[in-house]
Amino acid sequence: MMNRIVARNFGSNVYRLRIPWRPFSNDAASNLSSSNAGNPTKEGEGQQYDIAIVGGGMVGLALACSLASRPLTKHLNVAIIDSNPALGRNHFIKKEDLPDPRVSTVTPATISFFKDIGAWQYVERHRHAYFDKMQVWDYTGLGYTKYNARDANKEVLGCVVENKVLLSSLLSCVQDTDLQKKIYPSRLTSMSILPNSSSLEEDSTASETVLFTHGRLAKLELEDGHSVYAKLVVGADGGKSRVRELAGFRTTGWNYSQNAIICTVEHAVENHCAWQRFLPAGPIALLPIGDKFSNIVWTMNPKESSEFKSVTEDDFLKAVNHALDYGYGPHPTSSLLGNGDIFSWFKGDITMSAHDCFEVPPKVAKLASERMVFPLSLRHASDYASKRVVLIGDAAHTVHPLAGQGVNLGFGDASTLSNIISEGIAVGTDIGEVSLLKKYEADRKPANVMMMAVLDGFQKAYSVDFGPLNILRAAAFHGAHYISPLKKSIISYASGEHRLPLFS
Amino acid sequence: MASSKLLSQPRWFRFLPRNLSNVRLFSDLPSQLPVSEPQNSIESKSNNRFSKPSSTPSSLKEPELAKFSAIADTWWDSEGPFKPLHIMNPTRLAFIRSTLCRHFGKDPLCARPFEGLRIIDVGCGGGILSEPLARMGAAVTGIDAVEKNIKIARLHANLDPTTSTIEYCCTTAEKLVDEQRKFDAVVALEVIEHVADPAEFCKSLAALTVHEGATVVSTINRSMRSYATAIVAAEYLLQWLPKGTHEWSSFLTPEELTMILKRASIDVKEMAGFVYNPLTGRWSLSDDISVNFIAFGTKEN
């Protein structure tokens, strides 16, 4: 081809060819320029990027920030495709805004990830609440567990942050970086992976030119008519991922016959502890958000959830206090199994929280937001990666909210993927290569599946009101409360330190 | 990267024959290197000095050409016969990246550290090494004796604007020496065990390297362990490679390779081994040069 001959004659300098869209071009030579391979070509067909992140939510933006923070990936050209108008402008969150009911509990591992990418400083400017204590019990009153961050030599167990704060922090962070990015405020309609050399048999110049410009790329077509070409497509578009559907990834999973009601409530006193009580129909969780506000996540069957959504505020608050306090069963006392003497033969010092008595959560005084209802399900993609496509976050896995782990798994995915991409670029790999993307899958899949299994196990174990099972659960509570290595292990696992829940 | 480890001298080096004493191994660990006398069999291989008038080059053995022609189409099938090479590729590139960056004073944290370097990939096959080198910014020339390989390599490289600048030729190192081509770095991985005259081949590699340029050669050690792994296990038991891909007698020991490179004015500065972990299915760089090893040398004189 003429272009290559011309390139060779330029001696030792490296030139990357920018081929015009028209075939048989006689002024191809004059179009030679030393442009970066990743720059968007402004020819009529569509713009070309290194990575197209479909879904500009928390996990998608976290990936963009992470790429921007690494020396080997910060030169990449990234397209973010999301029709959410909030991404287009930096809306200011006012201090006096009431907390939004959609919150996430970020684990210490996520907090350190955010600090690495430079996004945590933005979170700290808004409302956020660290908590270092947690109490878990159930309605049978047979047992309870209190966790304290100090049991595992930590400062905090986690931090509760509103999703809109996380999103705007990540957006501010990525906008402050030098990463070349473009936000496409549209939705993905179709995707195709352009052919590779093994299927190429024809020798016609026209098709060669097509493949030359867009040979090994993925082509994304958007609702507003734009076309985007990318070496790698990242599906970060949530539980109903379009990328996952278009790429043909199979999923397994089931719907829990449960919905979650979430809302913000206010107390008369400050709350610094996270509370979770397992009721017959599902757990109710009270998470501190700061400024005497807390977030309620109440899981129950769909019929009850629509009832509770429509009752008056007062009735709802009464029901919440009932659920957190004496409703459904008695308070657990600490003396059922002899104050832990039975476990004293286990090695290791008793954690300080083992001596804490059961406490009643603070009364809920006021409702501070609307009540939202979401259906709950578990879903897992059978593969996370295929040629030129990779899934992260909820697109890859959806879990039960009972341990607040969901988005943390997604942030873990983003961190690992950007690490893998960086390692690939270090050795000149094509970032859309399946073998590279499978390394990401091999790293994240076992950990994610394990977490999902643990959470699903909890969900099932705590949904049954059956005598012997209740006693077993009580024993589990006591065990977790008094056996220090177990408690430390649980805290470490939930904090995101260890990927697998073993004694390690 | 283990670049800091490469700077430390191994404690055992004084027990080695002199020709390896300047070589820094990958880390500071003591090695179980078999200390063998360089055999005289290298001298007896110096036939084929004449070149045939056909397109077959002088240095590559005839049966080798036929072997590679047969499986040329499967070069880029990462699940096909070349799968072990695809899996090993990132590890080889990691060594090349760290040694060349250090030698040429390039920033290892740059995404395209080889900008401005001319590199030749001798025995490029389908281009699985040439393409990543081009992505790292180098001006790459890939040569191979098998015409089919060059065709496949060109076709595949043309699909990506970054790699389309690679110059592919069906030729031999000797012919390029005649054309007086020079390169900043000459890379010949997994080739020398297939040539008829390794000493002459190394002389050609040296002639292609500029003064104070770099030469990287990788091959398989001729040891009991490599017979067990690279021949018996890889070809017969696991069937990673087609039977007869390698002839154990044409493997070179690290000392032999260092010696023939020295005779060709290439000073071997660093050497590392590739080790396969069957549990993770990944290769990694290590001190263990008893099976696969790679050597980095510079041209002095």
Protein described:
The complex is a heterodimer of chains A (504) and B (301). Helix content of chain A is 32%, strand content 24%. Chain A is of the alpha+beta class and 504 residues long. Chain A has a single domain (47-197, 209-335, 348-495), classed as FAD/NAD(P)-binding domain (3-Layer(bba) Sandwich). In chain A, the strands form three sheets. In chain A, strands 5, 6, 12, 13, 14, 15, 16, 17 and 20 form a nine-stranded mixed beta sheet that branches. The N and C termini of chain A lie far apart (59 Å). Chain B is of the alpha/beta class and 301 residues long. Chain B has one domain: Vaccinia Virus protein VP39 (Rossmann fold, 3-Layer(aba) Sandwich). Chain B is built from ten helices and nine strands. Chain B has helices at residues 3-6, 41-44, 62-70, 83-104, 130-135, 147-157, 173-178, 198-208, 224-237, 254-263; strands spanning 24-25, 118-122, 139-143, 167-169, 183-189, 209-220, 266-277, 282-286, 292-299. In chain B, α8 links the parallel β5 (183-189) and β6 (209-220). Chain B is globular, with a radius of gyration of 18 Å. Chain B starts with a helix and ends with a strand. Residues 1-19 and 28-58 of chain B have low confidence and may be disordered. The chains are: A alpha+beta (504), B alpha/beta (301). Chain A binds chain B through residues 1, 3-4, 7-8, 12-19, 37, 71-73, 75, 196-198, 200, 208, 211-213, 215-216, 423-430, 433-435, and chain B through 73, 76-78, 86-87, 89-90, 93-94, 97, 109-111, 115-116, 118, 131-139, 152, 155-156, 158-162, 164-165, 167.
